[in-house]
Every structure is written in C-alpha cells, then in structure tokens.
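User: Predict the structure for this protein chain, please.
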Amino acid sequence: MTNILDGKTIAKKIQTQLQEQTKKLMLKHGRPPGLAVLMVGDNPASAAYVRNKERACAKVGIASFGRHFPSNTSQAELEETINALNQDQRVDGILLQLPLPEHLDAVSLLHQIHPDKDVDGLHPVNLGRLLRGEPGLRSCTPAGIMHLLQEYQINLSGQQTVVVGRSILVGKPLALMLLEANATVTIAHSRTQDLGELTRRADILVAAVGRPQLITSDMVKPGAVVIDVGINRVSDQQEKSRLVGDVHFDSVQETARYITPVPGGVGPMTVAMLLNNTILSYTKRYS
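Assistant: Here is the predicted structure, written as structure tokens:
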C-alpha cells in the first residue's frame, strides 16, 4: 500500500513551531520578523500564491510589508523599492514573486536583494553557499522536499535518486541538497533520451519539469519514493479545470511506496520554508 507524504499536515506542524518561536523572539527583541513580498501585474496564480503567503505570515506572527505593482512598473522603480527594503530594519526577508512581465529583467532584480534577506535562496551568494555546503538561506521548494523526506524518515544515503527538471528554482538546488545527504543523483530533463529507462532505476524520483502527468506507472520502480513538484491546471471534457502534478497520481500510487499528492504535498512545504527562512534571517541579525 502506498503511503501519502502529507505536506499539508507537516507544514501545519512547522507553522505551529514557528508561531511559538516568533512569540519568544517578539518578547526578546521587541518586534516581529518582517517579510516583503513584491508582486508585479495581475497573474491570477501569482496573486493566489501571494495571498497564501501573507495569510501564513499572519498565522505565524510575521509582519507583512508586501507591495503590489501595476504591470507597467519600470525596472528602475522596482530596483529602488528593493534597495529601500534592503535598508529597512523592520524587513528581514524580501521575495520577488515570479514570473514577472516580459519587459522586466528578473535575474537583475533578484541580484539586487541583499543575500541575507534573500528568503527565496536564489541570490548567487546563497546558491554559492549551497554549492560549498556552507550555512545560508536555501531555496524554499527544495528545502521543503528535504524536510518532508526527513520527517518521514526516508533514508537518502546511497539511494539512486533521479531529479527530472533542471531549473534554478528546484532541480539544480535540490540535486545539490540530495548530494549533501549522500544520495547518488542523476538530473534528467526535456532532452534526456529514453527518460523511462532512467526513471525506472530511481529509488527516489522527483518530477519537477512542468509537464502535466508526464511520469506514469511504467516509468516508476516498484517501491520507489515519488516526489511531485508540478502544479499544472488542466481542463477535462466538461471544461472543468483542476490541478494535477507532473506525475500521473492514480496509476503511480499503485507502484510507489511513498508519493506526494497535488495539491497538498510539496506546495505547503514551500510556504513553510519561506516562513522558516524569514525567521532564520531575523535571528541571524541578532546573533
């Protein structure tokens, strides 16, 4: 029988712990941790993510300093805002909600965020610290996946692990974190030949490629641990839309030993790690 890796329940547990921690920090330092989420434009998915993050902040006791900019906002205005937030003593974390409108240079803007306030873990300094195995803020989705595996006591040492996807958001940083945990890691992607032959060898299989239900049961080793990072909106024959992952859940759950659902798997863990990173950044300033 397949076990569900319940990210929603574990994320709630983390948030409860962070709430207690925040209360103690408030008493000690006289202010709450602060997070600024910057959103540009009216992307409905981004708006939903930002609302979730702000609600989660409120539950834990983190102050929100978010800003919502119109689609035609200039690069210079955003750079000015980020620089002001870098200097703002009330703000411990800055997150730039992606994707941005096409006229904006997201990479340049991410580089403007001070590494110690980069709660998304995407600044070159933080990625360099990850590569070197040094302490630093880690990318939220990969960190959430690692925490979920740890919570369910899934052994990684020596395990054959295949990560399908090579993005800077998930695939690359996750591969480094898995290597640090002594897994044997292979990265696959859209140009990989005979993907199924590769994925069938995996004791732990991570799908993070953004293709709806790409991974089917014939591509999964019996007894494997399957982590589904994908969030894809699809429509059925009646034109009703629903969220599915990069894994064909119904078929793969018959084969896998553990599997994450979509929604309710990796997504809540990502938000929990964002809150955790904000509090880490806060405590570092007082250490």
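The chain has a mean pLDDT of 95.
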